[in-house]
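User: Sequence in, structure out. Go.
Assistant: Echoing your sequence, followed by the structure tokens.
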Amino acid sequence: MGNNAQTDEINFEPFFNFIILFFKTVFGFFNNFYYTVKKNFIKMMIGSFVGIVLFVSLTFIMKPRYGVEMVVSSSFLSTRFFEAEIEILQDLIDEDNVQLLSERLQISEEIILQIHSINVEQYSTRLLYNDSINRTKNFAIQIDIYNTENAKIIQNSILNYLESIPYGIKIKEQRKQNYITLITKSEKELITLDSLISILGKTMIPTANSNGFIYGEPINPISFLERGQIVMGQLLAYENALELIDNIQLVREVTPFEKAKFPKKSYFAIIGLLLGFIIVSSRTWEKK
């Protein structure tokens, strides 16, 4: 018994009708919008102009906010350390906990009220300074404030706060003791070398029955002089490092931007233009 195969044809007519209806609707909307704008163009321009004037006027009433930035570096404190500590300060700002923030930063509450936000961002290691041994990390601490006159006071207070964290103090003291130990060791070695060179100098006296000097071979006095130069260089390096013992070094002081970060007149002008245009258009559309 044979089976009759039946094939169902797919009907694309509803799909094409939907596409046609969609484009008709979109075209009709833009067509109506075009004629509405053309008919009420002057009203819409006046509405947009009024919106621009009103919103730009707001920028003169609002309190201006300025952005300042300082760059610091550290070879010993991690990125997470900076992020966590700055986040704590920002949380206190968000909570309006002026008293506690004033105690943390050791500055007056009046200056604290001038701070809007504090953020930290890590720069590329090669951007400002590249130390292939210590792998120095550079960080940009960005501060939004209402008065740039107190920028340096805030900068120093943040640096002191980061240095005074117990974890940072522990690392600093450990490094300090290491450098003191190395300096003491180098000084003792220089004294020993000086004594040996002095002794060798006394033995380098020509004898009556010879034409040369007695060097006391196999001791070579030149090697002691070379070693002394190396140790002296190390000692100077250790002493310089001890002077820069702070975990955080200020690479670039705060640089206030001349123009206010907020409010931006251009942004408010665009918002006013769009809002004025939309309000007039919607009212015109309703009347239609």
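User: And one key feature?
Assistant: The chain has three domains: 20-61+266-287, 66-166+248-262, 170-202+213-243.
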